[in-house]
Amino acid sequence: MGRARRARRIAQAAAYGGGMGVAGVGALGVLGYGLLRAEAVMARRIVGQPFEGAPSDSGTYGSGAGEPLRFVVLGDSTGVGMGADHAHETIGATVATALAGFTGRPVELTNVAVIGAESTGLDEQVERALAVVPSPRVAVISIGANDVTHRIDKAVAVRHLGAAVRRLREAGAEVVVGTCPDLGAIQPVPQPLRWLARRWSRDLAAAQTVAVVEAGGRAVSVGDLLSEAFSTEPHVMFSKDRFHPSPVGYARVAAALLPTVSAALDLFGERSRPTEPNAWRGEGVRPLAVAATRAVTRPGTEVAPAEVAGGARGARGRWALLRHRIRLALPQPGAAGEPAPGGRAEVSRST
């Protein structure tokens, strides 16, 4: 079964309250999770000790005039910023600082993410966020890694994520979700566990994308965004526990999310002056499951709701717009010593 079909099945099971088992991939998943248990001790010995906490980044960023732009962050330890040394180094703080600069307004950040959170915990996080900020302007969710490592049924995980996005949209927020990172990119984790982790991560990320767009949000693929420097300089993108991002790694993830957050808020007039998707770069309108599957293999890819001829759905389901907001820098023909595709990344001018 292809990933697009698996993503559709997981999303359908989520929508109708069903489940697909802990792995959602049949016998391979059952065997894989048995292997995961057997190799867990080895992985813990390789990966460093976890941190005791993370800096609190809730607060006001920028000092412009006007009403603050209210911004909430939800999710797991990456949303909290575990591995960052200072509050201004988290994803939320980096995005808030940039938004304050773009808008000339202060940005009021409320972070309700929880270390170790699974998608099932998003219900409570949404309630806490809306109790503090009843009408947030934008919300960023970073979730998924613990659903994989804790063996959460994918249909259950995406059902809770979709419900969280829908509730935040009803409260008036634009919602951007950083989908499950590629846990196969954590190179100290041994094979074949790393191969299985990559498959599970990508399957969940694709299903998350389907659920997020169906609920009216935008999904951004995180994937293996941080893996390029691991083999040569693991301390650059990853923190001292060799699992959570470093401040540089968080900045990279924030840079992938920021163009989509800006577009969702229409900071640069994209709604009134939409740019055509670049077909040469693989952008365009696709059936949602197809767009979700393509996004997970290329970090920094955005998938958002779209219409064709005034309709949101076609014969193959929901339409979605796929954009590569982060453009991978490809080596020039004949250039020696250049990184392979998937190495360096730069922010696309297509916003």
From TrEMBL:
<keyword id="KW-0472">Membrane</keyword>
<dbReference type="InterPro" id="IPR013830">
    <property type="entry name" value="SGNH_hydro"/>
</dbReference>
<dbReference type="InterPro" id="IPR051532">
    <property type="entry name" value="Ester_Hydrolysis_Enzymes"/>
</dbReference>
<feature type="region of interest" description="Disordered">
    <location>
        <begin position="331"/>
        <end position="351"/>
    </location>
</feature>
<dbReference type="GO" id="GO:0016787">
    <property type="term" value="F:hydrolase activity"/>
</dbReference>
<keyword id="KW-1133">Transmembrane helix</keyword>
<keyword id="KW-0812">Transmembrane</keyword>
<feature type="domain" description="SGNH hydrolase-type esterase">
    <location>
        <begin position="73"/>
        <end position="252"/>
    </location>
</feature>
<feature type="compositionally biased region" description="Low complexity">
    <location>
        <begin position="331"/>
        <end position="343"/>
    </location>
</feature>
<dbReference type="Pfam" id="PF13472">
    <property type="entry name" value="Lipase_GDSL_2"/>
</dbReference>
<protein>
    <submittedName>
        <fullName>SGNH/GDSL hydrolase family protein</fullName>
    </submittedName>
</protein>
<keyword id="KW-0378">Hydrolase</keyword>
<feature type="transmembrane region" description="Helical">
    <location>
        <begin position="13"/>
        <end position="36"/>
    </location>
</feature>
<dbReference type="InterPro" id="IPR036514">
    <property type="entry name" value="SGNH_hydro_sf"/>
</dbReference>
